[in-house]
Amino acid sequence: MKKEERLSPRATRRLVYLLTVLFSVVFLYAGNRLAAAGGGYLPSLTGRELLRARVTAVTGREISETEGIVEGQTVQNLTIRFTASVDGGGTVSAQQVIDGYSSVQLQEVRAGDRIILYPNPDPATAAQAPYVIDDYLRVDGVLVFCGVFLVLLVVFGRMKGFHTVVSLLLTCGAIFAVFLPLVLGGFNIYVSAVAVCIYVTVSTLLIVNGPSPKTLVAVAGCSAGILFAGVLTLVLSAVMRLSGMASQEAIYLADLATRNPVDLKAVVFAAILIGAMGAIMDVAMSLASALWELREKAAAPSFRMLMKSGMNIGRDMMSTMANTLVLAYIGSSLATVLLLTAYSASVEGLLNREMIVTEVLQAVIGSMAILVTIPLTSLAASAVYMRGVKAIKKEDGEEAEN
């Protein structure tokens, strides 16, 4: 094909961008349909129909003492108005029941609060209060806050920020519309986690950076790091005899009314893999980009120079990224760590708990995967970028001869 018939770099980028987005839409739809076809995924295990409403008034408040319970049961009678057309509109009665058995309670609502509620399942009180409060309505505020974040990404990042928003939405779609339904549908969690990680890695880098040597190098380095993290997780899970039954949430997962039981050990594998993927991708892309700039600016780039520079840059990134992973995992489970620390007789006993072991493995395996990603990304960048330099020199030599 003649050079004038080839697509320009901008046209090629746009074509690859559109194809990637199209493939992503097909991937999300097909993955979700596959999970639904499995028959084990139950969209709603409770069957409750949640409704939105606003509290217009608190009409009564009663406290009944129960023997052996420090705080008795508190019942608030309310009048509420649905924000959607329910029961013909107008105001209806509802109840908020706060008992002393549970340590986690919803605060007493007041007039003007926005809430979600469900039909009262108790026939004895359903006539007096047809609806029971479930929780405060928070999802609207979360969506607005996330929307502001996405707008700021576009404002500050411009087109790059827009591409980041697209890739972020597709990544969230892959997790919530494909991976989680596949897990609940009884599909192999190991295969599902690896497939989603491969999809997220390739689609994110193609959408944000387009088809380029940098993207190729970043995909290679990220894939190697994720593969290492997966293999190491499998080995350590077997050596340490992890069961996956490390938290209250895991117990609830084991008791889910699904056709196929959830493999808790596989859930630990997926959690470590997905948790490490973001940091690994960040390191691989940053290193690939830095070495590309060095190759473009250096007077006489060489394989050895790029490899050495990549290792030096990687050492500087290594400490901060390792700290990021460790602090992220500690911060996400700080309440649990505090509780276990308070009730552990010794440091050895604390570190021997499977929940703590799992958190430590997540941080350490992610950090070790970064250590592997750095030299492999540097090696891939040195090989790919220097091949490009040789190709350019060869074309220049042929033009000079002509």
Automatic annotation (TrEMBL):
The keyword Glycoprotein does not apply. Keywords: Membrane, Transmembrane, Transmembrane helix. Pfam families: YibE_F. The keyword Membrane applies. It comes from the Bacteria. This is YibE/F family protein. The chain crosses the membrane at residues 15-35, 136-157, 164-183, 189-208, 215-239, 266-292, 313-340, 360-385.
